[in-house]
Amino acid sequence: MNWVFPKGSLWVLYDPERLKPQEFYDRIKEFDANAILVGTSFSEGEICDKVKKLKDLTDLPLILFPGSIYQLCEYYDYVLFLSLISGRNPEYLIGEHVKAAPLIKKMNLKVIPTAYILIDGGTYTATEYISNTKPIPRNKHELVIAHCLAAKYLGFQAIYLEAGSGAILSVPYELVRMVKSEVDLPVIVGGGIRLKEQVNKYFNSGADVVVVGTALEDNDWED
Ligand code: 1GP
Questions:
Q1: Got the DSSP string for 8-32?
Q2: Angle formed by the axes of helices 21-28 and 48-57, to 10°?
Q3: Distance 104 CA to ligand 1 centre (A)
Q4: How far apart are CA 166 and CA 183, in angstroms?
Q5: Does ligand 1 have an atom closer than 6 angstroms to the CB of 9?
Q6: Which of 17, 35, 46, 117 has CA atoms 20 to 30 A from the CA of 149?
Q7: What residues contact residue 206 under an 8 Å CB cut-off, 6+ apart?
Q8: Per-residue tens of pLDDT for the chain, all 223 residues
Q9: Residue 159 neighbours by CB under 8 Å, 6+ apart
Q10: H-type helices in the chain, by residue range?
Q11: What pTM does this model have?
Q12: Is the distance from the beta carbon of residue 171 to the nearest atom of ligand 1 less than 6 Å?
C-alpha cells in the first residue's frame, strides 16, 4: 500500500492487556490522535473482542502493532507488518510473517511493511526479552542509518524507531533527523514519550508519526 498518513501524525497505543476499551477511549477522546495502534508484547488470551469494542467506540483508524499472530483479526484498518531488523532472530525477521501471511490474505487486511528498529532506551524492555534480541546502542548513529538503508533497499515502506515501551530515554532527536536526511521513507518514533514538547521536537526533526502509549495509560501525559 502507499503511505496514507499525513506528516505529523500522532498515534496512541492501546494495550488490551492493560485497559478495557472504554477506559482507553475515555483517556484518548480529548487527545488529538490520528490513529490507534493496538498491540501488546504478551497476550494471555484473545484480544479481538476488545478490538471490536474499541472499533465501535471510535472512527479513528485501528492499526495492529503485532506481538504475535494470535492478535490478528478482521477489525483492523491496517497491520504494521513488522520485521525486527535490528535483531538477528529469524522468527521475528521472517518466521512469524510466514505464519501470519495466509491469515492476512484471508482477512483481506492492508499491510504496511515496516522495518522495526530497537534503539537502546536505557531500560530492558519486554520486546527485547520476548524477541531475544538486543537494541542498537543509541550513540551508534551510523549503524542505525545502515539498517535504515538496508530496509529501504529491501523494499520496506516505513521505518519504526523504537526506544521501547516505558523507555527512560526516548529516541534521540538528532538520530531522527539523520535518518530522515539519509532515507526517504516515513519514520515512526515511539517509546518513553511523555510530553507534548517532545512530540513537537520529533515533528521538527522530521518524524512522520509519533506514538504515545504508557503516558496516556498511566495518566502521566503533560501538555
Ligand atoms: C510504541 O512502545 C511504544 O512505540 C510506546 O511506548 O508506552 O513508552 O509510550 P510508550
A1: TEEEEEE-TTTS-HHHHHHHHTTS-
A2: 40
A3: 25
A4: 27
A5: no
A6: 35
A7: 176, 177, 179, 180, 181, 187
A8: 678 999 999 999 999 989 999 999 999 998 999 999 999 877 766 789 999 999 999 999 999 999 888 899 999 999 999 999 999 999 999 999 999 999 999 999 999 999 999 999 999 999 999 999 999 999 999 999 999 999 999 999 999 999 999 999 999 999 999 999 999 999 999 999 999 999 999 999 999 999 999 999 898 888 8
A9: 114, 115, 117, 148, 151, 179, 183, 185, 186, 187, 188
A10: 21-28, 48-57, 90, 96-107, 126-131, 141-154, 173-182, 196-204, 214-217
A11: 0.97
A12: no
CA distances from 187 to 70, 78, 143 (A): 26, 16, 16
Q: Whose CA is nearest to atom 1 of ligand 1?
A: 190
Q: What is the dihedral of CA 28, 50, 94, 110, to 10 degrees?
A: -70
Residue closest by Cα to atom 4 of ligand 1: 190
In this structure, the chain runs to a length of 223
- Ligand 1 site, residue 167, Cβ cutoff 6 A: yes
Whether domain 9-217 has CATH 3.20.20.390 = yes
Cα(105)–Cα(156) distance, integer angstroms: 19
